[in-house]
Amino acid sequence: MKNFGKIKDSVGLDRTAKQAASYILKVQSGVADHLNKRARNVSERILLLALFLFSAAFGGYCLYLILTPFINH
């Protein structure tokens, strides 16, 4: 009989997970729409430069994090 209680809890958790996923997707698409509206008037050259700088900055930081233990050892 205890198995039936676990099934009910599982159904409730599934419903909660679906609601949370739905909310996250709603917020994510709203943020994406907002950013698309703002970026629509920016030239491709500036967007490409921003992408390059963003990638270089975070790539360099990740490389730093990876190499720091070996350099300080």
Sum this structure up briefly.
With 73 residues, the chain is mainly α. It contains two helices and no strands. The longest helix is centred in the N-terminal third of the chain and has 38 residues, at 2-39.
What does this structure look like?
- The protein has 73 residues and is mainly alpha-helical.
- Helices cover 92% and strands 0% of the residues.
What are the secondary-structure elements, in order, as H or E?
HH
| Span between termini | 58 Å
Question: Low-confidence parts lasting 5 or more residues at pLDDT below 50?
Answer: none
Helix count from the secondary structure assignment: 2
The average pLDDT score comes to 88
* Main beta sheet strand tally, sense and closure: none
How many strand units?
0
Portion in beta strands: under 5%
Keywords:
92% helix; mainly alpha; 73 residues; single chain
Describe the protein's topology.
Layout: H1 2-39, H2 44-72
